[in-house]
Amino acid sequence: TYELVSGIGDTDNDEFLAIGNQLLLRSIPDYESQSSYSIRLKSTDSNSNSYEEEITLSVNDVNEEPTNITLDTYIINEDITATTAVANLSTDDEDASETQTYSLVSGEGDIDNDLFSINESQLLINDSADYEKKSAYSIRLKVTDSGDLSYEEPIDLTVIDVNEAPTAIKLSQSNFNENISTASILSTLTSSDEDTNDTHSYSLVSGDGDTDNSLFNIVDSNLKIKSPPDY
Hints:
Blueprint: E1 2-4, E2 16-19, E3 22-25, E4 36-44, E5 50-58, E6 68-71, E7 75-77, E8 85-92, E9 100-104, E10 116-119, E11 122-125, E12 136-145, E13 150-160, E14 168-171, E15 185-192, E16 216-219, E17 222-225
Parallel strand pairs: 7-13
Antiparallel strand pairs: 1-4, 2-3, 4-5, 6-8, 8-11, 9-12, 10-11, 12-13, 14-15, 15-17, 16-17
């Protein structure tokens, strides 16, 4: 008969059971947590003669699949340059010495896969992001280790709205009658702007085309003339 006994080398006795002539492990071994066990066994024959021995058991390292894909950021600033890296990819893997490769794959969440590409462990956006046209992306990533074990995961990315400069100034009208009274409103000003919720203020400034700036002023968004014009 066999049994686990106290004595030199019994460090991990509690992790095992001796039933009949079989040694059983109480829990699933994990090489990365513990690569060997030390136990002390006793054998007793039918005449009650016994022998004890310290036993060392080694755990074989078995390749385990990756369990997660992590991005160092899930946020993309709009107007980022095309083919720019938007995130660095990393993986949870019990096998610390493993190398991984990443790919975009078909499956749940792959809606925007064709808008991205991968360079080693970097996720690149193929074209500049525009919040006003698309404020979020959904992709599906796969990581494969050197033993060809893999893990897939859908990833959501959010585009941050960056304030963009106005692109044009529009006048409600660009002609007016001579002899109109001083301070008459000649035109109401509006702007073209990607950021539809922006408010705008206007001013007369020096530069190309400022020849007659001194003859006008602006109040709120209204362009006014300082004295009656004479054609």
